[in-house]
Amino acid sequence: MTDHWPGSTPSQTVGPYLHLGLLWPDGPDVVPPGTPGEIWLRGQIFDGAGAPVVDALVESWQADPDGRFDHPDDPRGAVRPTVAGFRGFGRSATDATGAYAIRTVKPGPLPGPDGVTEAPHLDLSVFARGLLHRLVTRLYFPDEPAANATDPVLAGLDPARRPTLVARPAPDGFRFDIHLQGEHETVFFAV
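Structure tokens predicted for Protocatechuate 3,4-dioxygenase alpha subunit:
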């Protein structure tokens, strides 16, 4: 009898189990309710045919309003946020209409490579049934036109695709729809 190592095992999709293991009660709250300056980031996730994706999850990771991370990977050193209760991380499942919502505060600009400043943004990951790997994108703010114009990531994209990364104003924050495929497909990054 010979042992044969099969190599890597096949990837599996998130499946129908994300609601069992990836959610927690304060998941969508990057900041506690009532935090001064809180905003809501709301949107829907759509598949290639334009139908809402009702079994997805959106994760957010962001700097605090001062553009800092309380994380050892921040090259400037981890710094406690000045906003009480700020976690820098949120997680929201989509509902029956494909909608998600994350309560947060607007992040500050970040130092980028080669001394260039990155515009305020959130990094977002999308998990859903049928995806073998998470999809990673960014959300930029429409009220930061000067910073967005010089952001190195946005500048590196086809100008026609940049709008897929810029949220729209909404009454209590911003709206950012994510299109997994199709004519309005959101820009995703290989990370």
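Residues 59 and 91 are 4 Å apart (CA to CA).
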